[in-house]
Design a protein that fits this description.
By secondary structure, the protein is mostly beta strands. The protein has no helices and 9 strands. It has one domain. The N and C termini lie far apart (about 45 Å). The model has no long low-confidence stretch (mean pLDDT about 95).
């Protein structure tokens, strides 16, 4: 028997976006592009994997808990990463 499990649909952020959570934030398969800034604010932890920040874009991580960056994470030249504790 062959079991096929679909991958989550990738998300592309092209405009400034802020996500607030009163708990944890888990991010997978996200591209931030087009000069956009993605801000993630969590009262818990932030976990990231399979994410890329390109084309002069920015990622701001603001967590009360810990920030964990797993596999396949890239911030390309000209883009920014800021981690606030």
């Amino acid at each position: 028997m062959l079991l096929i499990v679909p991958l989550p649909t990738p998300i592309t952020v092209t405009t400034d976006t802020t996500i607030n959570s009163c708990g944890n934030i888990n991010v997978q398969y996200v591209t931030v592009t087009n000069g956009a800034t993605l801000t993630l604010e969590a009262s818990g932890d932030i976990d990231i994997q399979d994410m890329v920040v390109i084309n002069n874009s920015a990622l701001i991580l603001d967590a009360v808990g810990k920030v964990t960056i797993h596999r396949n994470f890239e911030v390309q030249l000209g883009s920014e990463l800021e981690i606030i504790k």
